[in-house]
Structures are given as C-alpha cells and as structure tokens.
C-alpha cells in the first residue's frame, strides 16, 4: 500500500522511461526498487525510475471517456465514446479513403499494443502509421539499415564494458541513460577506456571524458570527416578489414585526401589538435565503440551524420567484434519495439518493406487482408497535411502538439482535422484538440512486452488496478479494431500473449520467442528459434544485408536549414536527468519536480554580457516561429553562440522555436539547430 492508500502488487516489470529497460518492482516504502536490466541484477535505478510509481495514481488521471459536445468535453459512457470514434474515423474513411487517417503509435506503449494499432491501420487500408522513433533515431535507422542491414545497436550495453575507447557523439548517457552509464560505460572508463565526447555542451558525460569536442551544432560531418582523414593519414585504418569487409575505400580515401583537418576544425569551432587526439584514441584502440544519440540524428542531414560515423567504424574494423560497433541509445522504453512491430509507414512488422509483395503476402496469410503497398506518411509529413489530404488522426499515447517541431503550428493544425481521437492517461496538450479522449492504462497497469535499446524483449506485468473507468490500452485498441474494420475476427485475441504469439509468426526477428521463454529475463533479437538464443554482436561474419561487405560512403557537409540573422544564437535542445520527453509523466512527479522544477536557458557568459543578461534574469527567446520566456542560466558549459534548453516543459515550450526542415531520407526534423534571438524580457 502506498502513502496514498492505493494498493500495488509487486511483480517485476519494466521502467516506463528510457530505453535502458531497467526492471523495477514496487517497494513498500512508496517508491520503486530497481533491478538493472533483466540479465544483470545489480539493484540499480535512477531518479526517474525511482519515481515511476508517482504518476500512476496521479490526481490528473483520466478516469472516464471524454466526448466533445458544443466545444466542451463531457464525460460519456464507453459505448457512446466508441460509437463517436467509429462514426468519426469511419466517416472520414468513407468520404476520403483510408489514407485520410493518420495513426500515431506510441514508443512508450507495449509491443502488443503497437502491433494491434499498426494492424488496424493496415487492415483499414493505409500505411499511415508512425511513432516518435521518427523524431529521435529515424536517421540512424535509415543509415545503418542501408549500410549494415539493421538499424539497432550492433552490440549490447553489457558489451560496452569490453571496449578500449568510447566515442560518444551527440549523446549524454550520464543523464539520459544513467543506469547504463554507471553500469557499463563508467566501469569501462575506470578500466582504462578512453572517452571521446562530441557535444556542443559540456554535461555530466563530459566530466568523465578524456577528449571533449564542443562542436558547433550542425557540424558533425566536418568533425567525423576530419577524424576519418586523420585515420587514413596516420595509418590508423584496418587494412585487412577494409579488404575483406568493405567496398568503396579507394573513392573515400581520395575524397578524404582533400579534407583539410584545420579547416574542418575551424568550421566546427574545435581545436584541430583535439580532433587528432580523438582520431588517435579511436584508431589506436583495439576495440572502439561508437555511442550515438539525438545530437547526431536530429538534423536535416541526420542520415548523413550517421553515415559519416559508420565510416569511422568500417575504416578501423570496429564492427562485428565485442566492445566495438555503432550503438544508438534509444530514448523511450519501447521506441525500439514500436518500430520492430511495424509502427512505421514504410515497413511491416520485422522491418519487411511494404513494397515487398512476398512480405505483404506473408502478412496476409496471418491477417486475412493484404496491407497496402505504398509507404504511408511520417508523423511530421502528416501534420503538415492536416485539413488537406489528412482529415482524421488516431493518437495513441503520444503528444505531438508538444513533441513535434514548430509545435504551435502543429497544435493549430489539429484544429483543421475533421476528427481526432486521443488515447492517453492525461488531458495532454494534444488531447485538448481532440473530439474524443479515451482514458487508457499506465505502465503499472498493463501486461505485455517492451524491447529495450539493446534489442532485449522483456515482459511488463500489472502491479496496480486501473482507476475509475479507465481501460487497458490493448482492450481499447482491439475493441476499436473490431468495430472499425470488416475483419473483427482478426482482432479476437485472448490477451497480450496471443498478440505476441502472432507477432512472432509475422516478424522474423522475433520468431521463436515466447512469454514462457522470456520469463523474468529477456530474449534478444535476432532470435534463433533452433538455438533458443539471441544474437549479442551483430555483423560478425556477414552484415544483416546478407553481404560479407558493407560500403564506405563519401559524405559531404550539409549546412543547417536556419541561417542565423545577425545577433542570433543557435538554440539546441536536449534532456536532463530528472525529466522525460514532453514531461507529461515526469512533471507530474513531486519528487522529480522538487529536483528540477523549472527549465532554464543556458547561455554562454560572453553572449550574456553582450545582451545585458545576468544569471537568473528572465529572457525572451524568439524567432519567426514563436516566442517563449525562460530563466537564464549563464554558464560556460555551452559554447559561445549557442543556447540550450530542454524539451521537457510546456513552459517554456522549446518546440515553439524549433524548425520543421526534414532530413530528405529519414524525414527527421532539425531539432538541434534553430536560429533564435535572446534578449532580456522587458518589464511590464
Ligand atoms: Fe528507468 Fe532508464 Fe532510469 Fe533505468 S536508467 S531506471 S530505464 S529511466
């Protein structure tokens, strides 16, 4: 029983926050106890995980369906609310066709729930389904899939302890994946591994770094190409690996010969000697691992940024061995799984392209309906077309009115829809634009599986009863699917295990997995049904493309979309230890708010003096997209010309300022580089 009197069971389940995937259990003292990972039980937990139960019983929880009547929400019985959804979505499908509906899957919900949501979209006849993996690592997945054949971590978290050099590019694992940092990266560093940190902002990860490259936002390619040039120039490449496992070295070498390390360093605003030091640390290590985050991926050239990093791994033979690889750290507890199970517009469950006729037929054998063959719209593309070719939205556990770039415009675009239904725990900013809001289940109330950042599938188990008339998400989705499609029998499941069993038949990377096999531990994909084991280190003998070799790529720098006007700073956004994504969960925890209740705008002392800003002053941050106020934190941690704030808060709403220029391939927005004016807020 917790301090509020609500009863919890104590079943091991998975933390609802980051992609490390710590197992947690409820503790009588009113919090959570941690068991880090399913395999290595160390009892580790971070502040967010410890506060995870705080939000389950929050007074803001929705306990009844809400239906809009005369511009206001009123509570309604489930039957009436679901009828409204069937009329709203079904009406749009009848009038405009299924491609007029956009489905937002959820990186924070289970594999089973996301599988059913994408199946609903495809049985209705559209591939318009996406999840917020689009906003974090779609560019990483695009580049790694193209070159290596798989878009996930090549190695495992545990395996990072074996490395001799950690090259952390655009990630801050000390704050964003804290248990992984403490359990795997720090022990490796204490055992002598070198840490190179490429980040415009000095943060907790930088404190452990041997080399810090505080690059200008948007110059990742300049830095990676300069490092590649040094690797070639100083003979730090792996000739045998290049000959046996790569193609295209001659062309890349010729291009790198033209790279002027000093010029690239100047463009990036870093010391050329530090670039050489980083190259030597990476190139001379026996085992070197790249760890990459959203600082790399969230650019309009995010895919190219990752291509440039992949070159480093291939040039030095740091692929396919323990302690090496290219390892994207995923943000949400099931962002990997939501993509694995097909919550993406261009691929079916298991990453089979929707354009592949044989893959569609395999799915049709299970579903009784063949999915459409044209890729659907990504999240950001869809919001740009609200009120035009997109007329309705099903938003499941996401909050795009806060999390998408140019968020004020996105929020207003929701008003252009004919119909919108939101399934969530709270009346979020997006829900305020909905016609119907359905009260779903919190992480502690649901059963199913999630897949963490290193491809481990783990079980979630219910620990608490649903409040009021809230329902389990899986029940809501299957109920809606039976009502909305003409294949109700395709959504008759006897609980989440039956959904998972179907998933293992449809998605080859999950083939052979089972709830029984996962038990209290995990199963890692790609899974071998015959061996009953997963694969820790990918690409050891062949790449996941099926080829023995992977291509090296020539990557040229791409300037950011926002050209800075005179006097503007580059706003770059990120995360902090105590909060999570749009803050819909973490800002409802008193404990986390006590630790960090307010966001600040970090600004370099030189920029602050030029603008007459003192530490603690209120400042106005603005550009053509919006204007927000924040409290200034004057600190040398951010480089001159750069300002930093998080995207966890509704006020200041960082995404009111971010731009919606997209990477042409992955369609990821350029969150990490926005031109802004910063000035003291005028007194009233
Ligand atoms: Fe949860 Fe991530 Fe913290 Fe682990 S490290 S307790 S998964 S937020």
Describe this entry's structure for a reader:
- By secondary structure, this protein is an alpha/beta fold.
- The protein has three domains: 66-124 and 350-400 and 409-454 and 470-508, Rossmann fold; 137-328, Dimethylsulfoxide Reductase, domain 2; 569-680, Barwin-like endoglucanases (Beta Barrel), CATH 2.40.40.20.
- Helices cover 31% and strands 18% of the residues.
- It is built from 24 helices and 30 strands.
- It has a seven-stranded mixed beta sheet with strand order 5-4-18-17-16-6-7, covered by helices on one side. A six-stranded mixed β-barrel has the order 25-29-26-28-27-30. The chain has a five-stranded parallel beta sheet with strand order 10-9-8-12-13.
- A hairpin with a 2-residue loop joins strand 27 (618-623) and strand 28 (626-634).
- The protein is globular and about 70 Å long.
- The protein starts with 12 loop residues before the first strand and ends with a strand.
- The model is unreliable at 37-41 (pLDDT under 50).
- Iron/sulfur cluster binds next to helix 1 and helix 7.
- This is Formate dehydrogenase subunit alpha.
- Pfam families: Molybdop_Fe4S4 (PF04879), Molybdopterin (PF00384), Molydop_binding (PF01568).
- Residues 8-58 form the 4Fe-4S Mo/W bis-MGD-type domain.
């Amino acid at each position: 029983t917790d301090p509020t009197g609500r009863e919890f069971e104590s079943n091991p389940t998975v933390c609802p926050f980051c992609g490390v995937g710590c197992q947690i259990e409820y503790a009588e003292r009113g919090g959570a106890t941690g068991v880090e990972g399913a395999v290595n039980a160390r009892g580790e937990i971070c502040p967010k995980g410890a506060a995870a139960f705080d939000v389950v019983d929050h007074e803001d929880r929705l306990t009844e369906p809400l239906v809009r009547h005369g511009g206001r929400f009123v509570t309604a019985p489930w039957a009436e609310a679901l009828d409204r959804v069937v009329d709203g979505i079904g009406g749009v499908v009848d009038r405009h066709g299924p491609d007029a509906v956009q489905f937002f899957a959820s990186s924070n919900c289970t594999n089973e729930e996301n599988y059913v949501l994408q199946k609903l979209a495809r049985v209705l006849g559209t591939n318009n389904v996406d999840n917020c993996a689009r906003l974090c690592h779609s560019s990483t997945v695009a580049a790694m899939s193209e070159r290596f054949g798989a878009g996930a971590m090549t190695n495992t978290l545990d395996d990072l302890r074996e490395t001799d050099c950690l090259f952390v590019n655009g990630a801050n694992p000390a704050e964003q994946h804290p248990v992984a940092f403490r359990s795997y990266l720090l022990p490796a560093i204490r055992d002598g591994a070198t840490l190179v940190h490429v980040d415009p902002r000095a943060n907790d990860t930088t404190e452990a770094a041997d080399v810090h490259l505080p690059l200008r936002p948007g110059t990742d390619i300049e830095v990676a190409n300069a490092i590649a040039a040094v690797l070639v120039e100083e003979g730090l490449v792996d000739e045998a690996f290049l000959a046996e496992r790569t193609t295209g070295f001659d062309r890349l070498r010729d291009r790198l010969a033209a790279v002027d390390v000093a010029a690239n360093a100047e463009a990036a605003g870093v010391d050329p000697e530090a670039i050489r030091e980083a190259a030597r640390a990476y190139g001379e290590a026996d085992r070197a691992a790249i760890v990459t985050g959203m600082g790399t991926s969230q650019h309009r050239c995010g895919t190219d940024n990752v291509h440039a990093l992949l070159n480093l791994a291939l040039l030095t033979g740091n692929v396919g061995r323990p302690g090496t690889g290219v390892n994207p750290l995923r943000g949400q507890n099931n962002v990997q799984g939501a993509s694995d199970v097909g919550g993406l517009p261009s691929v079916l469950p298991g990453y089979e392209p929707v354009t592949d006729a044989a893959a569609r037929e395999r799915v049709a054998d299970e579903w009784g309906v063949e999915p459409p063959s044209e890729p659907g719209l990504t999240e950001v593309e869809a919001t740009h077309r609200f009120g035009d070719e997109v007329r309705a939205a099903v938003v499941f556990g996401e909050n795009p009115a806060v999390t998408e770039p140019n968020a004020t415009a996105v929020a207003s675009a929701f008003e252009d829809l004919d119909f919108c239904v939101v399934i969530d725990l709270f009346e979020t900013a997006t829900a305020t634009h909905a016609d119907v809001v359905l009260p779903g289940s919190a992480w502690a109330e649901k059963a199913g599986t999630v897949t963490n950042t290193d491809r481990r599938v783990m079980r979630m188990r219910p620990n608490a009863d649903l409040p009021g008339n809230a329902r389990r998400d899986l029940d809501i989705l299957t109920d809606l699917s039976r009502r909305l499609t003409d294949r109700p029998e395709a959504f008759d499941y006897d609980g989440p295990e039956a959904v998972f069993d179907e998933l293992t038949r449809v998605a080859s990377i999950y083939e052979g997995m089972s709830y029984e096999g996962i038990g209290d531990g995990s199963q890692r994909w790609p899974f071998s049904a015959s061996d009953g084991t997963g694969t820790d280190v990918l690409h050891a003998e062949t790449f996941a493309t099926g080829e023995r070799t992977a291509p090296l790529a020539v990557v040229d720098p791409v300037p950011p979309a926002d050209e800075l006007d005179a006097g503007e700073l580059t706003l770059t956004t990120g995360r902090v230890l105590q909060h999570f994504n749009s803050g819909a969960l973490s800002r409802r925890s008193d404990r986390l708010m006590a630790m960090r209740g307010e966001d600040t705008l970090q600004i370099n002392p030189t920029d602050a003096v030029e603008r007459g800003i003192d530490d603690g002053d209120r400042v106005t941050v603005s550009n053509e997209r919006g204007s927000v106020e924040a409290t200034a934190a004057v600190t040398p941690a951010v480089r001159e010309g750069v300002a930093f704030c998080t995207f966890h808060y509704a006020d200041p709403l960082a995404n009111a300022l971010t731009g919606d220029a997209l990477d042409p391939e992955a369609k990821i927005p350029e969150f990490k580089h926005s031109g802004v004016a910063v000035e003291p807020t005028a007194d009233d």
